[in-house]
Design goal:
The chain has about 80 residues and is mainly alpha-helical. It has a single domain, classed as Multidrug-efflux Transporter Regulator, Chain: A, Domain 2 (Orthogonal Bundle), CATH 1.10.1660. The protein has a three-stranded antiparallel β-sheet.
């Protein structure tokens, strides 16, 4: 994988996040600053690693159905039988 160094604007486009959102979360995002602190720089590979922390796992629909059925069945039994 090619690693690129990105400024705030490029990192914003790379992540599909606004520059403001990146600035508001800068303490949790790996980055470099210029010596005077005036510019943020990011490595593309580190941004992808940071982004992975927020991955949502896909739902196993069969498992979700089993859970729903067990909850619905429990409620029906407590209510006095199936409808």
């Amino acid at each position: 994988m090619n690693v690129h160094v990105l400024d705030l604007r490029a990192a914003s486009e790379f992540l599909s996040l606004s520059p403001r959102t990146i600035r508001e979360n800068i303490s949790s995002i790996p980055h470099f600053t210029t010596p005077n602190g005036g510019k943020y720089l990011f490595r593309s590979d580190e941004l992808l690693t940071w982004l992975e922390r927020f991955r949502v796992k896909p739902v196993d629909l069969a498992e979700a159905h089993r859970i729903a059925e067990s909850l619905t069945g429990d409620r029906r039994r407590r209510a006095g039988g199936a409808r």
